Structure formats: C-alpha cells, structure tokens
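README: folding subset

This subset contains proteins for which both the sequence and a predicted structure token string are available. Records are stored as plain text. Below is the entry for Peptidase S9 prolyl oligopeptidase catalytic domain-containing protein (92 residues), shown exactly as it appears on disk.
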Amino acid sequence: MPNLILRSDHSVPETADPVTLQCGDAVLDVTQIARWAGCIGNRSTVVPVVDAKHDVFLSLPAPRRAAYRQLDSWLDHYCRAADPAAPTGGGC
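--- output ---
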C-alpha cells in the first residue's frame, strides 16, 4: 500500500512563541519521523515541507500550498501507475 508522509522540515519547542509554533512541528520530533518512516511499508514517500506545522494542511499559506502540490504530484504518480492512460493533473 503506498503512503505519503508529509512532515515539517524541523521541530520547534512547544513552549515557543506563537509565531514560531506556526512554522514547525511542536508535537513530534521530525528527526524521528524521518528515521522510522521507512518502517511503515516499502512504498513510503516522505516529504519534508519547509516551515510546516504539525498538521501540514493547517500551516500558513506557503507551506500549505507546498503540501498540496506534493499531494497532487504524489496522487498523479500513483494514478498513472494504476492507469497509464489516465490524464495527469486531474485526479484519479
């Protein structure tokens, strides 16, 4: 089963100021995510998103856009693998 792991590119202390909390993962250690992500399966894609918070889709606009671009690209890749005749960029 393919899986996409979107994560922040860095962790921040949960005691950081509110601005800093918006630009990093204050919940999990991203180094540990990177280290153990390969244990999820043999079809894992791990993408660090610059300045994303823990829930990358609730990040500030720039990292959120980057996360959605990565998701779109990943879905296009797996949709093409499932159906090589499928058009790109339009979903499955």
